[in-house]
Design goal:
Blueprint: H1 5-15, H2 18-25, H3 29-43, E1 48-51, E2 54-57, H4 59-83, E3 90-94, H5 96-102, H6 107-113, E4 114-119, H7 123-132, E5 137-141, E6 151-165, E7 185-189, H8 194-202, E8 209-213, H9 216-224, E9 229-233, E10 245-261, H10 264-271
Parallel strand pairs: 3-4, 3-5, 7-8, 7-9
Antiparallel strand pairs: 1-2, 5-10, 6-9, 6-10
């Protein structure tokens, strides 16, 4: 059984819903259902029974849950123990926006001080690498850090930007609120996606019309032809400047980008490497 499925199993038991759990985990409902089936196949028995009111543990499922929670805590403690043995250098995971726009003037120094840099499109994937021990520290959306075992330090905050066609009625608005977007199709990257997670966690009560694309190029092409809009972090806004598209901030919302690690000393070590101008972004 894939150890990454342990958190999936626990989340389904907490929410009593495959659909709700899939949203919290930022994976599709069919994919989560398949993972749960893998777990049941591993134990060769039914761990859940399904009703119109939700999905509930069987007696065997309750036993498995208790043991898997123990396993999860053991693995987390082991991770902390192994990462407390410090090497002279660290492995770092970065978001593309941070890598491209924040570290341009510090690349040479980072190559000297950091063994390896891994770039992923979203915080959730980076957190999995961190949990698996593939890397020692990441830069990511701090709101994604649910584990109490993790430490974090904010580097900067950035606004969310609405990207839309120049002929859009949104150009007439001085401020854009989330309610102004209800009539538009919103293009986002396939999950897991930081912006999608932000929308689901913050605006779950709104019926936003979301359509998924494989990459940012497809999203911007659709926006440029007037098919809809998109929402991006401010750090990616420089990609829009030469595309004859309009940008405005989403009123009242921003995200905190910071360093995340199981070890606070690792965070302090990386803080000493990073250029000071990073901390002044969008304050």
């Amino acid at each position: 059984m894939n150890i990454n499925y342990i958190e999936d199993f626990i989340k389904v038991t907490e929410t009593k819903s495959i659909n709700n759990a899939s949203q919290l985990l930022n994976i599709s409902t069919p994919a989560l259902s398949k993972r749960i089936k893998h777990i049941e196949n591993y134990f060769n028995c039914d761990l859940f029974y399904r009703t119109s009111k939700g999905i509930f543990l069987t007696k065997t499922g309750e036993i498995v849950l208790a043991k898997l929670i123990e396993v999860k805590h053991t693995l987390e403690d082991l991770k902390i123990e192994t990462q407390s043995i410090h090497a002279s250098k660290v492995r770092m995971g970065l978001l593309p926006s941070f890598s491209l726009y924040k570290l341009e003037n510090a690349k040479d120094r980072l190559k000297q001080d950091i063994v390896d840099i891994k770039i992923e499109n979203n915080t959730q994937v980076l957190l999995k690498h961190l949990s698996n021990g593939d890397i020692d520290i990441i830069t990511g959306d701090i709101s994604s850090t649910k584990s109490k075992k993790l430490y974090h330090e904010t580097l900067y905050s950035e606004k969310y930007k609405i990207v839309f066609h120049q002929n859009s009625a949104l150009n007439e608005k001085e401020n854009i609120f989330i309610e102004d977007l209800l009539e538009y199709k919103i293009f986002l990257l396939n999950p897991p996606c930081d912006t999608l997670a932000f929308i689901k966690n913050t605006f779950s009560n709104l019926k936003l019309n979301i359509d998924y694309k494989e990459n940012i190029e497809s999203i911007l092409a659709s926006v440029k032809t007037g098919l809809g809009i998109t929402i991006i972090p401010q750090s990616l806004a420089t990609r829009i400047e030469s595309m004859n598209l309009s940008l405005k901030s989403l009123k009242n919302y921003h995200r905190e980008i910071g360093l995340i690690s199981y070890d606070f000393e690792t965070i302090n070590n990386v803080l000493n490497i990073l250029p000071k101008e990073i901390f002044q972004y969008n304050k």
